[in-house]
């Protein structure tokens, strides 16, 4: 009998002796998860068997050929590729992810010549982000007898850090160096070569490449849009741009939209009823601890409460199991790390509590610091990670057993008083709260401490509004005009904003001198503004500042002002309220 079957039997024997209904339900959920894993194993073995048979057949064909010198060189290369693939398959079978058992189904769907788009909804922990690109790479390599593959794969992520992290992780699993078969382009960091088969970048980077070179997307057979549920303006523009490219220019590439919480019906309809593949994850039961009724959103400093809760867990709970704390910004995270170290008596030299690592996780983290977060901890050491919402879906931290959810997030919203979009601290949605909770149940039963009440959870929005419906549309309109779209109000958005919002954005751009009133095309000023990733008014201000020679002071003021607007507490406002004049 397998270990899984023995574990299921043990749980069945324990259930009749459970003292509470909650404990019974928890055991039943764990049993269901293990049973699903046991059922999935058959699919994993079948995938492995089919791959091994195909590799054996390919090697038999090579051995049977009459090889000359060049043929022998090619055979040796093929044998080396087969060795690497067999190693990968062995790892996949030893530590299978739910998506592995559905590989053939996914490839059959996305490689079908009639498929223009495919939606993959796969729960957190299923392996979609790391495995689907590898399946596509192996498929493309199997279609040619040489290493010169004309068209590759581009995979987008909402954040540069996620693009870099995934490229590094997949390169490691694919037995190659970053910059060879797997590469990335993120901000000013770039690792690609003429051997690169899969390139990772942000949605915005791919949009900019396509705007700079209309033929750029022709370099790829597959475009993978990951974490599409975040619905940033860049994601929506990119999807609309790719759909338009397929229709107008008959581009032969397949769009693959992936997410854990995506609205599959919406995206399937948008892409003319494209196929949908839904893959369940493996989430163990997670107990929820709600805060007391006296503590609610905005009534106190949630950063301090998060630090106190993480301290209590570390001191009172078993040392096995890391802690993940969700905050909203780098400033909050740095403050929380300092305060927890002080509370645990850890000095700057690292003296004090020697069985804990306190680590930050945010978008500006350096690769070496990110590696510390992602590596498994040693026995007897607990990792406590203070993170932004990047840890919800984009980055997976191994070993997390406890999650502390402050219920807060920074979100881009349009401020009608200031007539500009601002990053503001606001409540998370129910979907985000569930994603955060699920991080505690990846490898075993866990616990989620929610620093808000159950009543407040019920009052949350179910899901986040698409960014395009809650921000100023000026930059969106300029990007569409740069693409050559004339009737912006008739553009085929995934979800169209109000016509009045588009018209208001157009009037603002005309007043700023970015758009010509007579033909609604970009002016020279508009072409310069669209290159700056800020609101149209701020873009115009920066250009004027550069023209008049006071750009440095202007940028200082903008940095101070924008950070001041995103303060999450009165104490933070007081700390950062003084304008730094040099």
Kindly describe this structure:
Helices cover 46% and strands 15% of the residues. With 582 residues, it is an alpha/beta fold. The strands form 3 sheets. Strands 4-3-5-2-6-7-1-8 form an 8-stranded mixed sheet, sandwiched between helices. It has 4 domains: 1-96; 98-282, P-loop containing nucleotide triphosphate hydrolases (Rossmann fold), CATH 3.40.50; 286-465, Rossmann fold; 472-548, Four Helix Bundle (Hemerythrin (Met), subunit A). It contains 20 helices and 16 strands.
The structural domain count equals 4
- Looking at CATH, the homologous superfamily of the largest domain is P-loop containing nucleotide triphosphate hydrolases
Q: Helix proportion of residues, in percent?
A: 40-55%
**Cα-atom radius of gyration:** 26 Å
State the CATH topology of the largest domain: Rossmann fold
The CATH level-2 architecture of the largest domain is identified as: 3-Layer(aba) Sandwich
Overall pLDDT level: 83
Strand order of the largest sheet: 4-3-5-2-6-7-1-8
Provide the CATH top-level class of the largest domain: Alpha Beta
Question: Which residue ranges are poorly predicted, with pLDDT under 50 across at least 5 consecutive positions?
Answer: none
By DSSP (H or I, 4+ residues per run), the number of helices equals 20
Outline the biggest β-sheet.
Answer: 8 strands, mixed
Question: How much of the residues is beta strand, in percent?
Answer: 15-25%
